[in-house]
Amino acid sequence: MYMLIVYAGWLGLFGTLAFAIWKGDTAERLGAGLNFGLAIVGLLIHLLLPLSWRGIGLLAADFALATGFLLLAMRYASIWLGVAMLFEATQFALHGYYLVADKRHDYTYGLINNINTTAIQVAIVAGVVYAWRKRSRRRQTALDIPA
């Protein structure tokens, strides 16, 4: 069952990236790319770092993703980026708490981590849908203008 959840998570990350590349604008593509890239970094942290360093590595990865979302939000001023930043802040706080409290990752950690990751993906997908519809409306409006 655990591996099914892991595979579903990676499928969701890849699907979000593919949808953003297919139908999103620049902000959505960059946000999805950042999210997917940092997921790869997180996987590498789990595979390559010893257990004692994983907390710091995950905290640094979350800091990088939060900073990336912040820079995108400042550049593109999109609501979905603000929502994604709030969920990433929760993720950063989660890793910070477990690092400072010197707690092992437990069920609560996994649950919050997966909810946050999914919520960030939902925010990106919502941004893609919004950008796609906005582009469609603009195109439709341009076609409706009498000559």
Question: What does this 3D model show about the protein?
Answer:
- The protein is an all-alpha fold.
- Helix 1 packs parallel to helix 5 and helix 4 runs antiparallel to helix 5.
- The mean pLDDT is 91.
- The longest helix has 38 residues, at 107-144.
- The chain has one domain (2-15, 29-132).
- It is built from 5 helices and no strands.
- The protein has helices at 2-23, 26-48, 51-76, 79-100, 107-144.
- The chain is 89% helix and 0% strand.
Major sheet details: none
Could you say how many structural domains there are in total? 1
Order of SSEs: HHHHH
User: Which stretches are poorly predicted, pLDDT < 50 over at least 5 residues?
Assistant: none
Rg estimate, integer Å: 17 Å
| Through-space gap between termini | 60 Å
Mean pLDDT value: 91
Strand content: under 5%
Helix segment tally: 5
Global outline: elongated
Number of strands: 0
- Overall structural class, as computed from helix and strand content, comes to mainly alpha
Which bin fits the share of residues in helices?
over 70%
